[in-house]
Specification:
The structure holds 2 protein chains of 2 kinds. Chain A is built from 16 helices and 16 strands. Chain A is an alpha+beta fold. In chain A, helix 1 crosses helix 15. Classes of the chains: A alpha+beta, B alpha/beta.
């Protein structure tokens, strides 16, 4: 204890050096822990982007590519899946539910996801959490739902008008001016790519792309005739439009999921006008989860159209593995930063030995043994490192607190404050042990000096 | 003759990596309570002899015993402890740890030696009060006590060093040219105080200097060049 007080007093007399050493170690510890933390949170964020979906099906392509465009809305599908194929699998006895999605448009850089309103019922993220509406509700005809981030960044709320552009760049060449959509709802923040997306109906997407008009529908069946009538009506009485659209959606929903009905009227269903001729992908929930592998094989070998089915969980892991090289590189860099910090401390300690020779001689004269001198230097280094680690952890938490909102808005990664994990304790332990080992070098020199110098003060 | 504090026979010392011994002293004897002036020009082996006496280094051959203890029979750790307990050492200058207060510098000697503390406890004196007594007696103003040692003048620092060497009444004080950085008045004042303290506590004093004019302060003068029989040295 006396030795510690002595060491502390000595250290305080060399404040500026000590502070610099602490700072260097703090920065390197912060980086070391921070890199690990960010990559862990990213990994968790990755795994949280989608859950509850057993299969994602798209046109034949690489599985990572399919995952990227269907879940992360990055890149474009190579080809479309025909509506007939979707219908075939939607009505498959193993399939509990399915949601079609069509991609390719954007609004000011935010991807547009054309889907059915029951997307909001079936899509799950994180631990089986479903999407919730911050305000409003699912879209109907000529309406759109916004992800939390989109609504915030574009400053749109329920009732605002939205013009969708073709293409996914933030600068678009062709805007569908003639077909503005009304915002019907805004989703709660999820920390997933859903926050960045705009959801519209498949039929609206098709109309924007100049697909089949309303006239076709009139010819087909009574139900649809009525709907198109309502649709015309909407333009005049906006306030009523919602109810009618809702009815339509509801019916459509039932229609596509009532297997029996579809089986009975298979011939008829082919003649029902699809909302859009082709979709980018569809999400599938199965009656029995363990059947996913068999279902995947069945889809992959489907003869009418080349398809790829992926299980999101395993493909997410595959995607993460491709990114882990980046993670390793970051870890290596932060390791070197730590090494630099420790070498800096070593240099400072060695440089201070020269000026401290006098101090050592005095301590020797009053009875301190060379071992005391040795432990004095080692304890100083370990003490400095311990403080450096503590400051580093403090800096890390401060930085997370300060930057978490920015990281979430920029990268969609939710960085949680959390407690210190066992791995982090382990890393800090390694840093402390390294400082102990490194400090033995100057301590050994001081030990040798104190033996060789005796009580003479050689400078 | 009175009891001996330092006895030595055939002391030979050779620094590592040197073929010639630095020191060869056939016989050395200092009585308890004696005040010795050890005189010799620089390079005559003064520092070497002192580090032998303090138990920092060991003679290459021969025996050296202090207070009846053969130093070469002790381990490194035991010699460090022996020094802490029985020897007060005063350097030429820079005796104090600059970052500690004057007060703590003096008490440091007790921190490293339980024997010194025990000796004071036996006399029913607390280390703090002994520290205060010594500092007062050596003319260090009470308002300087809690200042950092580095803020004192050289003369004051040397007197604080004396207080530290004396606290707990060690048997032997070794002073290595402690007055070389002082002017004449300060030097005489310093010597008087040192002598008084050593006499009153019956402490043996070995005072090293190259200055022959200080001889009248001491009981006996040992010319190192006379007792050191290394060839080639006068």
């Amino acid at each position: 204890m006396k030795l510690f007080r002595l060491s502390l007093a000595s250290l305080l007399s060399r404040k500026s050096n000590a502070l610099l050493t602490i700072f260097a170690i703090a920065i390197s510890v912060m980086l070391l822990l921070g890199v690990e933390r960010v990559s862990q949170q990213t990994r968790a964020g990755f795994a949280n982007t989608i859950s509850g979906t057993d299969l994602i099906v798209g046109a034949r392509s690489g599985s990572v590519n399919l995952l990227l465009y269907s879940v992360f809305h990055i890149g474009n599908p190579t080809a479309n899946v025909s509506w007939q194929t979707y219908e075939h699998f939607a009505n498959h006895p193993q399939v509990e539910w399915s949601v079609p999605i069509a991609l390719g448009d954007s609004v000011r850089g935010f991807p547009v996801v054309a889907t059915e309103p029951h997307y909001f019922d079936y899509f799950r993220y994180a631990r089986q959490q479903s999407l919730a509406f911050a305000e409003g509700q699912a879209f109907g005809r000529e309406e759109a739902v916004l992800g939390a981030q989109v609504a915030r960044q574009l400053g749109l709320t329920v009732g605002s008008e939205l013009v969708v552009a073709h293409g996914t760049g933030s600068v678009s060449f062709h805007e569908h001016d003639d077909h503005p959509l009304i915002i019907s709802g805004v989703l709660e923040r999820t920390g997933t790519p859903v926050d960045q997306a705009i959801f519209i109906g498949l039929r609206d997407l098709d109309i924007m792309h100049g697909g089949h008009g309303h006239d076709h529908e009139n010819d087909h069946d009574h139900e649809h005739h009525e709907h198109s009538h309502d649709h015309d009506h909407d333009h005049e009485h906006h306030e009523h439009s919602h109810d009618h659209d809702h009815d339509h959606d509801h019916e459509h929903h039932e229609h596509s999921h009532d297997h029996e009905h579809n089986h009975v009227h298979e011939a008829e269903s082919a003649s029902v006008q699809p909302p859009i001729p082709g979709i980018s992908a569809f999400l599938v929930g199965l009656q029995s989860r363990p059947r996913a592998v068999f279902m995947q094989r069945e889809i992959n070998t489907y003869r009418d159209e080349p398809l790829t089915a992926i299980m999101p969980g395993s493909t997410l892991q595959e995607l993460w593995r491709t990114l882990s090289g980046f993670e390793t590189a970051l870890s290596i860099v932060s390791g070197f930063v730590l090494l630099t910090g420790l070498i800096g401390m070593l240099a400072t300690l060695l440089a201070s030995l020269r000026e401290r020779r006098r101090e050592m001689a005095v301590l020797r004269a009053i009875g301190a043994g060379p071992k005391t001198i040795f432990s004095l230097l080692v304890s100083e280094a370990v003490f400095l490192t311990a403080i450096g680690i503590a400051v580093g952890v403090g800096l890390l938490y401060g930085l997370i607190l300060a930057l978490a909102p920015w990281i979430q808005t920029s990268f969609g990664i939710v960085v949680e404050l959390g407690t210190i994990s066992p791995e982090e304790w382990q890393r800090m332990g390694i840093v402390l042990a390294a400082s102990f080992v490194i400090s033995c070098i100057p301590a050994w020199r001081a030990y040798r000096n104190s033996l060789a110098d005796g009580l003479s003060m050689r400078f | 003759m009175a009891e001996l504090c330092i006895t030595g026979q055939q002391i030979k010392f050779c620094w590592p990596k040197q073929s010639q011994p630095t020191l060869f002293i056939p016989a050395l004897a200092v009585a308890k309570g004696e005040r010795i002036l050890l005189r010799g020009p620089s390079g005559s082996g003064k520092s070497t002899l002192l580090s032998l006496l303090a138990g920092i280094n060991q003679p290459s051959s021969g025996t050296l015993s202090i207070l009846g203890t053969d130093l070469h029979r002790l381990s490194q750790r035991q010699r460090d402890k022996f020094r802490a307990d029985h020897i007060g050492y005063i350097f030429q200058q820079f005796n104090l740890l600059p970052y500690l207060s004057v007060y703590r510098n003096v008490l440091l000697a007790c921190d490293f030696s339980t024997a010194r503390k025990k000796k004071l406890a036996a006399l029913n004196i607390k280390p703090e009060s002994e520290c205060e007594r010594l500092l007062t007696h050596l003319g260090i103003d009470a308002k300087l006590w809690h200042q950092q040692a580095s803020q004192l003048s050289v003369g004051q620092q040397q007197r604080v060093a004396v207080a530290r060497a004396l606290i707990g009444k060690p048997e032997l004080i070794i002073a290595d040219e402690p007055t070389s950085a002082l002017d004449t008045d300060a030097r005489d004042n310093f010597l008087d105080l040192l002598q008084q303290e050593c006499t009153s506590a019956a402490i043996t004093l070995v005072f090293v200097t190259h200055d022959a004019s200080l001889g009248h302060h001491f009981d006996r003068i040992i010319e190192l060049s006379e007792i050191n029989q290394v060839e080639g040295k006068k």
